[in-house]
Amino acid sequence: MLLALASPAPAQTSRASASPSPDAQLDKLAAKARQDLAKYRASLAPVLAMYERRLEQQTELAAARQDLYERGAMTEREVRDGKRALAAAQKDVEDTRRAMTEADRMLGEAHMADVGRTRPLARGQYEETAGLVRFAGSAEWSLAVDTPKLQRFFQGRFGKALPVSAYGQSALHDRMGFDHRNALDVALHPDSPEGRALMVFLRMNDIPFIAAWGTVPGQASGAHIHVGQPSPRLLARR
User: Which ranges of the chain would DSSP assign to H, the alpha helix?
Assistant: First the structure.
């Protein structure tokens, strides 16, 4: 009995060797998620164009309704209905633009994760490459404890709130399979004065970060600074 338990049957060994490794399965799932996200991002462009045309039409109609109302040729209720239609058209445009920005940012996060996995930095190493700045700071970063420090620095330096685009885990991070629970995304372009100042502050305080210029050609909406360690895949930690 002991010998039989210690030595798996040949058929079982064959099946085990034929099965893909957990890492290979994760890579396949991550690649599929990136492809789906890229397709989703591409599908939003024509949707936005349609909503923008509708918004332009509703803007013109709202002005015409107001003119007719002032002439006594339209009721107040009809004007209110027109304003509601205009507000709905504006919301459609804003929601679609927000979805595009979030998709761009997540494509950037996927690129960051790929680079971090294939070219990990040594502790304390700083690197600037095309479209990416990385710093492997050795400070123990805590989202809850250290975020207020960044906010105070930014408020004192620029007189406005730090533009946080993702605080910890988000629905999109869940969908992409990234552990973002102890990370902060800041919606700043790395080339902007605010972005450069923030990166200098992070380096001076030995806080790890990655800054990306975005992955969509001609679009800067995905540009952001990821504060904290690179987001590993959730399943890779199990």
Answer: 2-6, 10-18, 22-70, 76-118, 143-158, 171-176, 193-204
How far is Cα 10 from Cα 105, in angstroms, rounded to an integer? 48
CA dist 161 and 80 (Å) reads 35
pTM: 0.70
In this structure, the chain runs to a length of: 238
Amino acid found at 86? L
Instruction: Report the distance separating Cα 78 and Cα 81, nearest Å.
Output: 5
What's the pLDDT tens digit per position in 84-120? Answer: 999 999 999 999 998 888 888 888 777 787 787 788 8
Quote the DSSP letter at residue 123: T
Say how far apart CA 39 and CA 57 lie, in whole Å.
28
Which residues, other chains included, contact 229 with Cβ-Cβ below 8 Å and sequence gap of 6+? 141, 182, 183, 208
DSSP string covering 36-87:
HHHHHHHHHHHHHHHHHHHHHHHHHHHHHHHHHHHTTSS-HHHHHHHHHHHH
Indicate the DSSP class of residue 224: E
- 213, 112 contact by CB (below 8 A): no
Element containing residue 165 per DSSP (H, E): strand 164-167
